[in-house]
Amino acid sequence: MELTLCLIKPDAVRRDLVGSILYMIEKADLKIVAMKMLKLDLPLAQGFYHVHKERPFFGELTEYMASGPIVAVVLAGNNAIKRYRELMGATDPAQAADGTIRKVHAISKGENSVHGSDAPETAAFEIGYFFNATELVG
Ligand code: IDP
Ligand code: MG
Questions:
Q1: Which residue among 10, 59, 85, 126 has the highest number of C-beta atoms inside a 10 angstrom radius?
Q2: What is the DSSP annotation of 32-87?
Q3: What is the CATH number of the domain that holds 24?
Q4: Options 50, 52, 105, 115, the catalytic residue
Q5: Ligand 1 atom 9, closest CA
């Protein structure tokens, strides 16, 4: 059993897509073991995306992530990190495969509706960024 962090990003919460995205996740047989809605401020968004701080899009990304509420979700399953990355689709929705969350819902490469951890080390950091061990259930 592996854990991964999903964020439903501000563009998706704003467009009332939380239920649709969670439906796709549950249909894909990934188990929700923790969930909360929150609004990041700029320093929290910057801390979450610190690995991208040298990238040209860092300012745009962190301001967007702090622009409205998000939903943080911990998912569990065999090979959950890779399976959820596949379900999300490519970063740019124009490149995302049919049936993926980003193909169906994302607006652009920046406003791409969901985040997913990319490796066990980043998943551990990202889950710990939003949740205590006692908040994971199931
Ligand atoms: P990922 O979310 O598919 O793992 P990353 O390369 O880790 O993609 O980038 C993190 C996030 O930064 C993306 O999901 C997207 O919101 C944003 N981003 C990535 N590349 C660009 C870009 O070229 N312009 C604007 N935003 C970007
Ligand atoms: Mg990434």
A1: 126
A2: EEEEEEE---HHHHHHHTGGGTTSTTHHHHHHHHTSS-EEEEEEEETTHHHHHHHH
A3: 3.30.70.141
A4: 115
A5: 91
Question: Is 85 touching ligand 1 by the criterion CB < 6 Å?
Answer: no
58 within domain boundaries: no
105 is catalytic: no
Does residue 62 form part of some domain?
Answer: no
Q: Which of 55, 105, 109 for a ligand 1 pocket mutation test, highest count of atoms within 8 Å of Cβ?
A: 109
* 66 domain-assigned: no
Task: Look at residue 109 and tell me if it is in a domain.
Answer: yes
Which residues span the domain enclosing 119?
2-39+72-132
The pTM of this model reads 0.98
Per-residue pLDDT of the chain (138 residues; tens, 9 = 90+): 999 999 999 999 999 999 999 999 999 999 999 999 999 999 999 999 999 999 999 999 999 999 999 999 999 999 999 999 999 999 999 999 999 999 999 999 999 999 999 999 999 999 999 999 999 997
